[in-house]
Design goal:
Order of helices and strands: HHEEEHEEEHHHEHEEHEEHEE
Strand content: 5-15%
Radius of gyration: 45 Å
Low-confidence stretches: 99-133, 465-475
Oligomer: single chain
Distance between the termini: 71 Å
Strand order of the largest sheet: 3-2-1-6-5-4
CATH architecture of the largest domain: 2-Layer Sandwich
Number of strands: 13
CATH topology of the largest domain: Beta-Lactamase
Mean pLDDT: 78
Helix content: 40-55%
CATH class of the largest domain: Alpha Beta
CATH superfamily of the largest domain: PAS domain
Shape: elongated
Amino acid sequence: MKLGKRLFISFLAVIFVVTLSIGIGAPFLIKEFLIESRKTELNDKGVDLIRFVRDFQEDRITYWQFGRLINNLDHFLGARIWILDDQDHLIFASEDASDNDEEDIPSPLGPPPLPWNSSAPFASQQTENYDFSRIPLESIAGGNEISAFLKDQNRKSDFFRHHPYYKEDMLVVVVPYNATRVNSGGTIIFHFPLEAIDHMLNSIYIYLGISVILAIGVASILAQFLTRTIAGPLLTMKTSAGAMAQGNYNLHITPRGPEEVQELAQSFNHLAYELDTNMKELEKQETLRRDFIANVSHELRTPLTIMRGFTEALLDGVITEPKQIDSTYHTMRDETVRLSKLITELLDLSRMQASSVVMPLSPINLIEIVENAFTLFEQPCQAKEVLLEMAVPQEAGLINGNGDRLTQLLLILLDNALKFTPIGGTISIDLEETPAEQILTLSDTGSGIPAEDLPYIWERFYKSDKSRQRDTNNPSGTGLGLAIAKEIIEKHSATVKIESSPKKGTSFIIAFPRNIEKE
């Protein structure tokens, strides 16, 4: 099926499905909402009505006043109201006030007429002293069914399908009131006809039906227009994409159609231009990824293999001399420490590379960081007979930094310099300040780094083995130090430059922006 026809059919299908879903779900949700709202309202009105029932029981209002109140409430709520005592005897049943003359006395139960003896007092014959509580609920048409409904504590619904007295579906809300020292308890019953809600839902169905017809008509016109303006350029892009899949990136599409489609065509052209470069970069990244996996595997496997070999030798009794056993344990311990360091640095690097982790920064005096690192490395440098020098100003401004991470940065660079600086060499730390920056320079007189290796020294596990060999007296590192150092530099919004000459030495020049506001 052609793209244009698929767009047209899909567009109409979406409109139809969405409208149908709304048409099916909305009336149900609206009905549930209306019923729950009505139940809450009737229950609240029932609680308020209890006070007037008490007033009527205690003769603070007359039967006519009470009846007029109940009938007005009936008219306001649209619900028939019955008042029962604790013996399920009817005290009062409302009529819609709009059907009564204000001069009439409310009857004990509005039309249809009560099924008891026609000689019973009606509206025109009732007096204030008439005791309506003597009318049992069972004496009313359908009273037994109503009584059973009220007494069923396990009923699953508040709906009375085809109410035996009112002959229509009703929502029944029961509000009990408790006995007091003066008055007996009883029940207030609201009968709300569901016909009003059904009528509203029928209107909603009609409006939704009309909306569906109009939506489909409008959608058909729009779909035809969109199909012509979108499908054409998209088909051109499809052909061009097929050519690009074959490796042909020298393509150009003339932007036409809607603005969004034109932007897509321009993006497509830009994609074709950049794709060749990106593919080369992806190949480079894939090589680095494979190298990283291989290096991690090697770095993890080496200490584990050593520890396994020594463990098996000890278990098999191959090593029996006390000095050999002691040496074996020391070797196993060193490999364990190396393995632990590797895992720790991997986790540390991973945390710093996570975009969701923010390094806390605060105003820092970089002179204190440099002096602290110098103190920590004085003894290792003396032990290797390497001269360690420091040149810092007496005072300097502040930078935004993390003290622990800056100390870690200097220790990584110093450790790296010491490993590649021969006996008799020199390592120097210099700090100078400009109006906008503080520049930290760490230099060594080691073997230097070849120019072709400089772009890759920040990669994890990258080692320039051809010229930058480690001193055999120093344990080898994990290959993660400079990768961690680069992350620390970037987290401080600093820049780094490397100057290196083979057989002459290397300098790391790091520029930190000053925190002028805090100075």
